[in-house]
């Protein structure tokens, strides 16, 4: 049984927007306010440009390899299963860690309007994760339609907020502009780390590449959905933060855990607080639903290649969804939701994301075809490599150490599963639907031989790139 093609380009665009616009927009502004002050508006622009660059790299890769698995599939096609596994492993870890963040945020925002005790918070997190797990198991079409609804609902409060905030700026320019002074109260000492935190707010575009086998006309739909989704998010983020910093002094933002609720109160009083709280709840729900949809397809693709337990590739007999991995991810997310260090989770997530994005940028160098109509294929992956290296070195030192350990922990997982025969009956079905992707299915080479061969190939690619420049 193969995955069913039921997602339209509109569904995919909403999955991308829904994955990006989530709890991050409701908390990241407070974190950056304490690091760089109003200069954070520039940080949001810079991080958006960085994310858009990586997103276009993904769009180009999906053009050449329109199959489920996203960067795991791209790197595997360009280089080798081992490096594809490391890409998928780091990305899966990053997305898995993000799921409990949304559950925690949902309980916190709900608690701001409905007092919750410790036991009630645990119950809310469990019901939240359980409901979204069931929605994904019922079918990708149901999950896609649910995400369409959640995306539209959660963007409406932001539209109202931005429009009302701009009107406020025109009516009260002295108040609005006064909150932008001083513009750089803390200098640029923490600007790089602020970019890391804000970059996480833009992450989610990669989710649009995971369910490729469930998208109608993936080679056309995925790149267009990524570009359209990033444009929508970029406009919303920059405008939202422009209004936010003009409404509330930086010191108050830094001290608040719900900055948009605080700004909504400035605009509409208690009604504004309720409006932004409801928007936050739907926003968090949409992000977790999209994240669960994408990360489960990543694990499914890796299981088909024999790099994850084969049970992760088991599809529901009625709904045709990878229900086993969905249940596993739901349980893990619930357990991790007891860990409440949100900035730490964000920083570590960005480290893993940057590593997988780095390998994806290298993959485009190999995958690109100069005869294709895609523009900037030589420059974009180089820009992506530079951005990823910047993000890696800008995370916290602890993230570098723990991240290296987590990546190393993936090696024995690969060595255990890689000698296994992949699931041929699923893989044949999987590949037969992709006219643009032909992959070798011969016996795997030894691990050391793969490494030596890849070093040689990387050296040749580097020489060609330097020669062209």
Automatic annotation (TrEMBL):
The chain crosses the membrane at residues 12-33, 39-61, 82-110, 122-140, 152-171, 183-205, 226-248, 260-282, 323-340, 346-367, 374-394, 400-417. InterPro entries: AA/rel_permease1 (IPR002293), APC_superfamily (IPR050367). Pfam families: AA_permease_2. GO terms for molecular function: transmembrane transporter activity. It comes from the Archaea. It is found in: Cell membrane. It is a multi-pass membrane protein. The keyword Transmembrane applies. GO terms for cellular component: plasma membrane. Keywords: Cell membrane, Membrane, Transmembrane, Transmembrane helix. PANTHER family: AMINO ACID TRANSPORTER-RELATED, MEMBRANE PROTEIN. This is Amino acid permease. It comes from Methanofollis formosanus.
């Amino acid at each position: 049984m193969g995955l069913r093609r039921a997602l339209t380009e509109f569904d995919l665009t909403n999955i991308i927007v829904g994955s990006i616009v989530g709890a991050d927009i409701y908390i990241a502004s407070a974190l950056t306010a304490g690091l760089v002050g109003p200069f954070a508006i520039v940080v949001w622009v810079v991080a958006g440009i960085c994310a858009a660059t990586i997103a276009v790299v993904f769009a180009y890769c999906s053009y050449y390899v329109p199959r489920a698995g996203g960067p795991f599939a791209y790197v595997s096609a360009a280089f080798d299963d081992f490096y594809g596994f490391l890409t998928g492993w780091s990305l899966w870890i990053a997305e898995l860690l993000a799921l409990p963040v949304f559950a925690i945020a949902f309980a916190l925002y709900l608690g701001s309007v409905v007092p919750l005790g410790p036991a009630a918070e645990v119950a809310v997190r469990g019901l939240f994760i359980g409901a979204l797990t069931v929605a994904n198991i019922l079918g990708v079409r149901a999950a896609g339609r649910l995400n369409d609804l959640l995306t539209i609902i959660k963007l409406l409060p932001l539209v109202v907020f931005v429009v009302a905030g701009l009107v406020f700026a025109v009516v009260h320019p002295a108040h609005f502009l006064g909150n932008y002074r001083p513009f750089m109260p803390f200098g640029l000492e923490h600007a790089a780390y602020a970019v890391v935190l804000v970059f996480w707010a833009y992450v989610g575009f990669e989710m649009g590449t995971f369910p490729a086998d469930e998208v109608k006309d993936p080679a056309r739909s995925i790149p267009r959905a990524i570009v359209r989704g990033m444009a929508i998010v970029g406009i919303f983020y920059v405008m939202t933060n422009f209004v936010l910093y003009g409404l509330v002094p930086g010191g108050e933002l830094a001290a608040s855990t719900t900055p948009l609720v605080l700004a909504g109160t400035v605009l509409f009083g208690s009604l504004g607080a309720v409006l932004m709280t409801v928007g936050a709840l739907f926003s968090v729900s949409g992000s977790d639903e999209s994240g669960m949809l994408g990360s489960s397809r990543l694990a499914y693709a890796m299981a088909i290649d024999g790099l994850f337990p084969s049970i992760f590739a088991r599809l529901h007999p009625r709904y045709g969804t990878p229900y086993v991995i969905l249940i596993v991810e739901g349980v893990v997310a619930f357990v991790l939701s007891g860990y409440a260090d949100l900035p730490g989770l964000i920083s570590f997530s960005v480290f893993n994301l940057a590593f997988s994005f780095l390998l994806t940028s290298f993959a485009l160098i190999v995958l690109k075809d100069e005869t294709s109509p895609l523009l900037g294929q030589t420059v974009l992956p180089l820009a992506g490599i530079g951005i990823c290296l910047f993000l890696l070195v800008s995370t916290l030192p602890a993230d570098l150490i723990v991240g290296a350990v987590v990546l190393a922990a993936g090696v024995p997982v690969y060595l255990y599963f890689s000698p296994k025969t992949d699931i041929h009956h699923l893989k044949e079905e999987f590949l037969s639907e992709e006219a643009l992707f032909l992959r070798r299915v011969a016996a795997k080479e030894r691990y050391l031989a793969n490494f030596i061969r890849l070093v040689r190939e990387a050296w040749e690619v580097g020489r060609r790139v330097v020669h062209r420049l």
